[in-house]
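Our working data are protein records whose layout never changes between entries. Instead of coordinates, the fold is spelled out as a row of discrete tokens. Here is such a record, shown just as it appears in the course material:
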Amino acid sequence: MENMQIVSASKKVEAQYVEMKVPLYSYGCEKKVKKALSQLKGIHSVSVDYEQQKVTVWGICDRDQVLDTIKSKRKGACFWGTEGAHKCLRPRSKPTTSSSTRSWMLTWKAWKMAKILLI
């Protein structure tokens, strides 16, 4: 009995869902995120929706700790449904090229073929 320590429960501990918006560029990113989150204590399940760029975690955990873990792998992560969620993900921009420069753009293979034909 002397070895036992009395600890007061100051926080109510319950299982919760944590939903985050995470920029995923490939299925490899998905694996990194799952692996990082599965190593946290108290996490029961991790589901990743690649199409919506959404990660859902269920377990007994701290929301901020889960977000910090995700941010160590994917910098633009934020909570799902927050006002600034649309600012978290950078829009994928398409390279802008005019039609005149596009006609002069050749791949390396095309340059080699053109060199062979000119010789």
